[in-house]
Design a protein that fits this description.
heterodimer; A: 734 residues; alpha/beta; 6-stranded mixed β-barrel; 26 strands; B: 625 residues; alpha+beta; 5-stranded antiparallel β-sheet
Chain lengths: 734, 625
C-alpha cells in the first residue's frame, strides 16, 4: 500500500474549544428537536448538536439546527429601539421608555378616537409560550382589541379549524411513535424530507423496521412522493374530491369500522349521502387520479390494521383547507383510526411554537383552547386574571388575513406587529404594502430590523431571538420543551417577554392584573389554568421538562403527585371511547361538498403556481438567508419548471424569467426538472419580494387561511438577462 | 481524544465485528502487517499523543452510501462543515443529484460524496509538495494545508472533487475521515448526522446491517478503476435509462445494457449556438498556465534547435551561432521563460512556498516537471552566461567546452521537463487532456514558436536571410502540422468515446465556437503560408509585412489554442446541484456580483501575495535545525 510519508506529520483537526453544552429546543420548525449548543471559553456559541437522549430527535439535527448557533450574531439584528414620526423619515435611536411610551400613547389615542378594535395586534408562531400567554393577557385583558391574531393563520389555521369541527377542539391526537405502529401512512401535501427532516428520519427508521406502505398525495414529485409506494399526483386544490371518493369506496364496499362509527361519531348518514356523489369515475375527472388507483388506495387504507394520515401545507393552504382537514379526520373516523397506536390524524405543524400559540396566545379565544363564545370560559379567565368579564368580546375577532382587509378599508388604524413580516408572508404583497402605508401608527417588534415590515414602522422594538430568551415551546406531537437563554440579546435588544411586561406596566396602571416577570413563574400560572383541560400541563415545571428533555401533554398534577414519570413518547388523545370534546363525547362526521373557486390556469396565465419550502431555508430567510452554510444551497429565487414547457418558450436552465400573475410579477431563475408537470411551476416562497407578489391567496371560509398553492401565472423570458440578474441580486441584498 | 457523550446513540458507533481479508481489487484490507513499525503510533491529533485502541484501527475503512435512500437534506454536509469549520464556499462533502424520467414517473438520485480515501490515491501521487499522507490507521488519506502550496493539481487529478482549493486562503483542504472520532469508536460526523438512512461507514467491503449491495458504480460516479475508491454503494431501485444533471455540465448518464452500468454521454443542454466568450477564455485563472507552457515550450524549442543544430552541424544554425544574434537570442529566451516561470509561481496559492515543488519527485509528474524546467532554466542562464564570457574573453579557451557540456545537460533537463509537462496532463479524470494530442500540441509549440523566436531575433543579424527564413518556415510548418494532426485525431477520438472528453469538445464547438473556428482557420492559413514561405522565401517590405502578420497570427492561434486547452476541460467529477457545486452558477455569481455577498457560498478567484515573512521564517527554522 502506498502511504506517501513514512514519518507522519501531526494531524490538525478543528476543535471548537467547547467548555459547556447548553440545552435548548430548536427554534425553526415544529418538530421540536432538542439541541445542545456548545459554548467556548469566552461563552460564545460555537457549535450545535442534537441531544442524544431526547426522544424527538435522538441526537440528530437537520442542517438548519446544525448551524443554529450562527444566528446570534447574524447580520441585520435589531440592537436599539428606533423611532420616527413619519415612515418616510429616517429612524432615530431612542430609549426603551420613550419607544414604549410612544407605542402606548398611540394605541390609546387610536383606540379612543376610532374604537377599541381599531388597533390590531399580529403576532407569530415563533415566540415562546410564556410570551404568547403574557401577550394574550395584555391584549385580551388590558388593551382589549378583538383584532388580535398570529401568523399561524398562514400555516396551521386550517388544521386548527378542521380539528375543532371534527373533534370539538384543537389538539393533534397523534405522536411520532405512531410511525412505529402504523400499517399504512398517507401523507397529504406534506414533504417530510424537506420540511421536517427529523420527523422523516423517525418515519424512515420505523419503516425500515416494519415496512408499512406509504401513500403520498402531492402534485409535485417530492422526495417523499418519489419514495412512496403509491404517489397520487393530484390536481391542485381538489383534495376534498379525492377524500370523498376514497370514502365513497370505503362505504360502498363496507370497509368502514361500523362499531367505532356508532360508538364515537355523529353524522354518518349525511356523510354517506354526500360521498355518494363522488364515485371514483366522477371524482377522477376532477382530481386527476384515475378511478382504479382511488379504489386501490381506499382499500389499502381501510383494510390496514392501523392507518395514519399526516398533512401539512398542501392541505392547509387551500380554499378548502379546513374541509381538507375535516376530510382527513372523516377518513380516520370511519375507519376507526383515531387515538390508537399507528392510527391517527396528525397535522405536521409548521412553526416551532405554532402549537404554543394555538394553546396559549388567546388569539382565537382564551388560554388553553378556551373560547370567547363561552360565557363560562370568559368568566373563568376574567376571574383568574382579575379583569372585568364584560371587557372580553363575545366572539373572536378578525384573522390576520381579514385584519389586512380591514386596514385596507380604513377600519383598522394602528398595528403592533410582533415577530412576523407580512410584507413577505401574506399573499399579494402589493396590496399589503398599500395597506401598511395607510396605518396611522405601526410598531414592529422583531429580532431583525432589516425586514420590509420595519420600513413601515413608526417604532421599532428590538427583540431577542430563540435561545436569547427563556420559556417553552410545544411541538407537533404536543411535547412541551424548554428554551434557555444561552447568550444575552445583542446590545440593547430585549427578550419579547420583557417587552410585553414593560408594555403591560403602562396599560396596567392600577396594577390589578398580575404579570409575573419570569418565564418559570408564568409557566406555573399557565399550569394552574390547564388543570382538567385537554391540554393539561399542570404536572410540568421547567425543571421537570428539562429533566425529561420535553414532556407531552397531557401531563397532570395528579400524575406528578403520584410520582408517575412522564412517558418518553407515545402519548395520544381520544384513546378512550367517546372522549371527543363535543358535549356528547362524539366526533362529527361532516359532509364536504366541493366548490371549485380556485384561480386555475387559462390561456393568458397558463401555469399553476405552486409554492412551498426548501430544506435549507426557514420562512422569509431573515434567519437562514444570513447563514451561508444554509443559504448557499438556494441563494436566489428560482422556479422548478418542466423542460418540455421550457422548450416551447425557448428557455434554458439558468435563464432569468419574469413570472406574471394577475397581481404583479417576479424575477426568478429557471431550473428545469420533470419533478413538476408541464403546466405547473414550483416557486419556493422564502424569498422576499418574490412568490407573494404573485399569489392570489383566496381565503378558506372557516380558517381564513390563504390558498398560497393555487394561483395562475404566465412566464416570459427576460430579454436583458444582465439586467434581470441585477434586479434579482438587488432584492437579495441584506 | 475526542469526547464521547455518555449517552451517545448507538447509530453513532462503529459496528464492524468481522471483516474480509482482501478487498475487491485484491488488496489486503489490513493496511499493514502486525509487525509493521507503522503500528501503535499516535495519530498526534492537535498535539494529543494518545494512541487509539480501536480493534479495526489498521483496516481500510470507507463510506457506504445508499443512493436510493438519500433525500438530499444536506445534514451530512452541514455536520461536516460545522465540525471542521469549513468556509461556506467549500465543502469536504457535498450533495449533488442526477434525475431522470418524465412527470410523474420521475426519479431524482441524490449523491453525497466526500473523499473516498482511495487505494490508489492519485492526489497523493500527484501532489508535488507531499502534503498528502495515506495513514495505516483506517487507511485514511489526509492532507496537510500547512505543507500545501496551493497549485491545485490534486483537484485536477481527483475524479471526485474531494480536495478543495480555497481561492481565499490559497490552499487545499479536504475530508479527514473524522479520524479523531474514529479513534474513540465513533463514525464520522457526516454519517452520524444522516437523516435518510443513506450514509454509513465501516471497514471496507462490509455491508452495513439492513443493506444488501456493495457496488462501486452508480450513475454520476466516475469509473472506479481510476483510483480504486474506498466507497461502496447500494442502488437497487429502478432508474430511468437516462439520468441527467441539473448543473451546467453538458453531461448525462446513459445506461449501457451491455456493460450493465451507466456511462457518461454528452448532453447538449446549452444548444448549438456558437459563441465568443473571449473574457472567459483569455482572462481565466488558468491563463498563467497558458503563458507558462507556451513560453517554456517555445524557449526549449529555440534553445534545443540551436544547440542540436550546432552539434549536428546544420549550416543555418551554425551561421546564427556565429553571428552576433547569439547573445540577443539568449537574452530573449531568458526573458521569455522568466515571465513564464514568474506567472506560474505567482499563480500558486502560496507562491512563497515554491521550493516545495520538488518534494515529491518519487511520484509526482508535477515535481518532475518543476525539476526538469528548473534545471533547464538554470542551465539556460549558465550557458548564456558562459557564452557571454566566452565572447568577452575569447582567450579563455575552456569557457566554450564547458558551455557546450552544460548545454548538453540543459537539453536533457529540458527534455525531462517537457516530457513531464506532457505527462502531468495525462489525467484519467480529465479525458480532454488524457490524449496524445496534448503531446502533439506541446511539440507543435516547441517547434513553431521555437523557430519563431530564433528567426525573429536572428534575421536582423543574418547575412543570408532567405535561407534562415525558409528554414524557420519549414520548422514552423512542421510544428503547426503536428498540432493540426493532433487536433483532428483528438476531436475524432473524443467524439467517438462520447464521455466528458466529447462534452469538452461540445463546449469547444459551441460556447467557444468562434474562437475555435478562428483558431482552426488561422492554423490552416498559417500552415499554407509557412509552406509557401519555406519554398519561396520572403523579400522586401511586403515580405516584412507578411512576416510580421504571420508571426502575429501564429502567436494568436497558439494563445487561443492553449487557452482553450485549459478553459474547456471537463473532469469526470461528481454531479452538482442546481446552485451548489454548479460551475455554471459559480461563474454567473462571479460575473454579476452575487459572489460579493458573503452568504452566497461563492468566492472570487484571486491572486495571492508572496509572503516574504513566511519564507524567511522557514529559512531560519530550517537553518536552525
Amino acid at each position: 500500500m502506498l502511504f506517501g510519508r513514512q514519518k507522519k506529520n501531526p494531524i490538525k483537526i478543528n476543535d471548537h474549544g467547547v467548555v459547556d453544552w447548553k440545552y435548548a429546543t430548536c427554534g425553526y420548525c415544529s418538530t421540536g428537536c432538542a439541541i445542545e449548543v456548545g459554548l467556548n471559553a469566552e461563552g460564545k456559541p460555537v457549535t450545535s448538536r442534537g441531544v442524544a437522549d431526547a426522544d424527538v430527535n435522538r441526537g440528530k439535527l437537520c442542517l438548519k439546527g446544525l448551524s443554529e448557533h450562527r444566528l446570534f450574531d447574524s447580520a441585520g439584528r435589531g440592537t436599539q429601539p428606533l423611532m420616527r414620526d413619519e415612515i418616510h423619515q429616517p429612524f432615530a435611536v431612542t430609549s426603551w421608555d420613550s419607544a414604549l411610551d410612544k407605542t402606548y400613547a398611540e394605541i390609546n389615542r387610536i383606540q379612543a378616537k376610532y374604537g377599541r378594535d381599531s388597533v390590531a395586534i399580529i403576532s407569530t408562531g415563533q415566540m415562546l409560550t410564556e410570551e404568547f400567554y403574557t401577550l394574550g393577557k395584555l391584549t385580551r385583558g388590558l388593551i382589549g382589541t378583538n383584532n388580535y391574531d398570529g401568523n399561524t393563520t398562514l400555516c396551521m389555521a386550517s388544521a386548527v379549524s378542521g380539528y375543532k369541527r371534527s373533534f370539538g377542539s384543537d389538539g393533534p391526537p397523534g405522536c411520532y411513535e405512531d410511525f412505529e405502529h402504523t400499517d399504512c401512512l398517507m401523507a397529504w401535501g406534506s414533504n417530510l424530507p424537506e420540511q421536517h427532516p427529523i420527523i422523516y428520519w423517525r418515519m424512515k427508521e420505523a419503516q425500515a423496521k416494519r415496512g408499512f406502505p406509504l401513500v403520498v398525495i402531492d402534485p409535485r414529485v417530492t422526495m417523499l412522493a418519489q419514495n412512496a409506494d403509491i404517489h397520487l399526483p393530484i390536481t391542485p386544490g381538489t383534495d376534498v374530491v379525492l377524500q370523498n371518493a376514497l370514502m365513497h369506496v370505503i362505504l360502498d364496499e363496507g370497509l368502514e369500522d361500523k362499531v367505532y362509527i356508532k360508538a364515537n361519531t355523529n353524522g354518518i348518514e349525511a356523510l354517506s349521502a354526500e360521498v355518494k356523489n363522488y364515485d371514483p369515475t366522477t371524482a377522477a375527472k376532477i382530481c386527476g387520479i384515475d378511478e382504479d388507483t382511488i379504489r386501490v388506495v381506499a382499500r389499502l387504507f381501510a383494510k390496514a390494521g392501523a392507518a395514519m394520515s399526516i398533512w401539512t401545507m398542501g392541505i392547509n393552504q387551500s380554499t378548502h383547507g379546513s374541509d381538507g382537514v375535516v376530510g382527513i379526520n372523516n377518513l380516520s373516523l370511519i375507519t376507526g383510526n383515531i387515538g390508537k397506536p399507528g392510527g391517527t390524524s396528525l397535522s405536521i405543524t409548521g412553526q416551532c411554537n405554532a402549537m404554543g400559540t394555538r394553546e396559549w396566545s388567546s388569539c382565537s379565544g382564551l388560554p388553553n383552547y378556551r373560547q370567547l363564545e363561552s360565557a363560562e370560559d370568559r368568566a373563568e379567565i376574567a376571574e383568574f386574571w382579575n379583569v372585568d368579564e364584560a371587557f372580553f368580546p363575545k366572539k373572536r375577532g378578525m384573522f390576520q388575513t381579514d385584519i389586512y382587509r380591514a386596514i385596507e378599508t380604513g377600519e383598522i388604524k394602528g398595528l403592533w406587529l410582533i415577530a412576523t413580516n407580512p410584507l413577505s408572508s401574506l399573499p399579494d404583497t402589493a396590496r399589503i404594502r398599500k395597506s401598511m402605508a395607510k396605518l396611522e401608527f405601526v410598531a414592529v417588534q422583531d429580532c431583525y430590523e432589516d425586514t420590509e415590515s420595519a420600513q413601515y414602522a413608526h417604532v421599532f422594538l428590538p427583540a431577542g431571538t430563540w435561545a436569547e430568551k427563556h420559556g417553552v415551546m410545544t411541538n407537533t406531537e404536543r411535547r412541551v420543551n424548554l428554551v434557555q437563554p444561552l447568550v444575552a440579546p445583542p446590545e440593547n435588544a430585549k427578550p419579547d417577554l420583557w417587552i410585553f411586561n414593560q408594555m403591560a406596566k403602562r396599560f396596567n396602571s392600577e396594577s390589578k392584573v398580575n404579570f409575573p416577570e419570569n418565564a418559570d413563574e408564568i409557566f406555573l400560572e399557565m399550569g394552574g389554568l390547564s388543570k382538567g383541560r385537554l391540554s393539561d400541563i399542570s404536572g410540568m415545571t421547567h425543571e421537570k421538562i428539562l429533566e425529561h428533555k420535553g414532556i407531552q401533554w397531557p401531563y397532570t398534577e395528579a400524575q406528578s403527585e403520584q410520582g408517575i414519570a412522564p412517558e418518553k413518547g407515545g402519548v395520544r388523545l381520544y384513546t378512550k371511547p367517546a372522549t371527543f370534546r363535543y358535549e356528547d363525547g362524539k366526533a362529527k362526521l361532516i359532509p364536504l361538498p366541493f366548490i371549485d373557486n380556485n384561480e386555475v390556469p387559462d390561456e393568458k396565465f397558463p401555469f399553476w403556481l405552486n409554492t412551498g419550502r426548501l430544506v435549507e431555508h426557514w420562512h422569509g430567510r431573515s434567519k437562514t438567508g444570513k447563514v451561508a452554510n444554509n443559504n448557499k444551497f438556494s441563494p436566489i429565487p428560482f422556479i422548478e419548471m418542466n423542460p418540455d414547457a421550457a422548450k416551447e418558450l425557448g428557455l434554458r436552465a439558468q435563464d432569468y424569467v419574469r413570472l406574471i400573475s394577475r397581481r404583479s410579477d417576479a424575477i426568478v431563475m429557471v431550473m428545469l426538472t420533470q419533478r413538476v408537470p408541464k403546466n405547473m411551476i414550483f416557486l419556493p416562497f422564502h424569498f422576499h419580494d418574490c412568490a407573494n407578489r404573485l399569489t392570489l391567496g383566496l381565503l378558506d371560509p372557516y380558517s381564513r387561511q390563504p390558498a398560497y398553492k393555487q394561483s395562475a401565472v404566465r412566464i416570459e423570458r427576460c430579454e436583458d438577462q444582465q439586467h434581470a440578474a441585477q434586479m434579482s441580486m438587488e432584492m437579495r441584498a441584506f | 481524544m475526542f469526547k464521547v457523550r455518555q449517552n451517545e446513540p448507538e447509530y453513532a458507533f462503529l459496528a464492524d465485528k468481522t471483516s474480509q481479508e482482501l478487498n475487491r481489487y485484491g488488496l489486503s484490507i489490513e493496511t499493514v502487517e502486525n509487525s509493521s513499525d507503522l503500528r501503535d503510533e499516535s495519530l498526534n491529533i492537535n498535539g494529543d499523543e494518545a494512541v487509539g485502541e480501536h480493534p479495526n484501527r489498521y483496516k481500510q475503512h470507507g463510506f457506504f452510501f445508499n443512493a436510493d435512500n438519500c433525500i438530499g437534506c444536506h445534514a451530512c454536509e452541514t455536520a461536516c462543515s460545522e465540525k471542521n469549520d469549513v468556509p461556506s464556499h467549500l465543502a469536504f462533502r457535498s450533495v449533488g443529484f442526477v434525475e431522470g424520467g418524465s412527470y410523474p414517473a420521475y426519479k431524482r438520485l441524490n449523491l453525497s460524496i466526500a473523499c473516498n480515501h482511495c487505494d490508489d490515491p492519485v492526489c497523493l501521487k500527484g501532489c508535488p509538495t507531499r502534503a498528502y499522507t495515506k495513514f495505516a490507521e483506517y487507511g485514511a488519506v489526509l492532507q496537510d494545508p500547512d505543507i500545501c502550496f496551493g497549485c491545485g493539481y490534486c483537484t485536477w487529478v481527483c475524479p471526485y472533487n474531494a480536495p478543495q482549493l480555497d481561492p481565499v486562503k490559497g490552499e487545499v483542504s479536504k475530508c479527514n475521515m473524522c479520524v479523531d472520532r474514529l479513534e474513540v469508536g465513533l463514525k464520522p460526523a457526516c454519517v452520524s448526522a444522516c437523516l435518510g438512512k443513506a450514509l454509513d461507514f465501516g471497514v471496507i467491503e462490509n455491508i452495513p446491517e439492513g443493506h444488501e449491495q456493495a457496488k462501486t458504480e452508480i450513475p454520476g460516479f466516475p469509473d472506479a478503476d481510476i483510483t480504486h475508491p474506498n466507497i461502496r454503494f447500494e442502488q437497487s431501485k429502478a432508474l430511468q435509462r437516462e439520468m441527467t444533471r441539473s448543473d451546467a455540465m453538458p453531461i448525462k448518464y446513459h445506461r449501457d445494457d451491455a456493460q450493465g452500468k451507466f456511462v457518461s454521454a454528452v448532453d447538449e443542454k446549452h444548444g448549438d449556438k456558437k459563441q465568443w466568450h473571449w473574457k472567459k477564455l483569455l482572462l481565466s485563472h488558468e491563463s498563467s498556465h497558458t503563458i507558462f507552457t507556451l513560453t517554456t515550450q517555445a524557449v526549449m524549442g529555440a534553445f534545443m534547435m540551436l544547440m542540436l543544430g550546432g552539434w549536428f552541424n546544420i549550416a543555418v544554425v551554425q551561421t546564427i551561432l556565429q553571428s552576433s544574434a547569439k547573445l540577443p537570442l539568449f537574452a530573449v529566451m531568458i526573458a521569455l521563460i522568466s515571465i513564464g516561470l514568474f506567472k506560474l509561481n505567482m499563480h500558486l496559492g502560496k507562491p512563497h512556498r515554491f521550493y516545495r515543488g520538488f518534494n515529491n519527485l518519487r511520484h509526482s509528474p508535477v515535481s518532475r516537471e518543476i525539476a526538469g524546467v528548473s534545471g533547464f532554466f538554470t542551465g539556460l542562464l549558465g550557458v548564456g552566461f558562459l557564452m557571454f564570457c566566452a565572447q568577452q574573453w575569447p582567450t579563455v579557451t575552456w569557457l566554450n567546452p564547458v558551455a557546450q557540456g552544460l548545454a548538453g545537460l540543459t537539453v536533457i533537463s529540458g527534455l525531462v521537463g517537457l516530457y513531464y509537462m506532457y505527462k502531468l496532463y495525462r489525467i484519467p479524470a480529465r479525458p480532454y487532456w488524457n490524449h496524445w494530442q496534448t503531446a502533439s500540441a506541446f511539440i507543435g509549440t516547441f517547434l513553431s514558436l521555437g523557430a519563431l523566436i530564433i528567426t525573429s531575433v536572428a534575421t536582423p543579424f543574418a547575412v543570408d536571410t532567405q535561407t534562415l527564413i525558409k528554414a524557420a518556415a519549414t520548422v514552423i510548418a512542421l510544428g503547426l502540422i503536428t498540432e493540426a494532426i493532433g487536433h483532428v485525431f483528438h476531436g475524432r477520438d473524443l467524439n467517438a468515446k462520447g464521455d466528458e472528453g466529447a462534452a469538452s469538445h461540445y463546449i469547444q464547438r459551441t460556447q467557444f465556437g468562434y474562437p475555435w473556428m478562428i483558431r482552426n482557420g488561422l492554423l490552416i492559413v498559417n500552415i499554407i503560408a509557412a509552406l509557401i514561405i519555406s519554398i519561396k522565401g520572403l523579400e522586401g517590405s511586403l515580405g516584412m509585412l507578411i512576416a510580421l502578420t504571420l508571426s502575429a497570427s501564429i502567436l494568436f492561434s497558439a494563445v487561443i489554442s492553449r487557452s482553450m486547452f485549459y478553459a474547456i476541460v471537463i473532469p469526470t467529477t461528481m454531479p452538482g446541484a442546481f446552485f451548489w457545486k454548479n460551475q455554471g452558477f459559480v461563474e454567473h455569481a462571479r460575473d454579476v456580483g452575487l459572489a460579493d455577498m458573503p452568504q452566497m457560498g461563492v468566492e472570487h478567484e484571486r491572486h495571492h501575495a508572496f509572503d516574504w515573512d513566511e519564507l524567511l521564517q522557514t529559512v531560519k527554522e530550517t537553518l536552525g535545525k
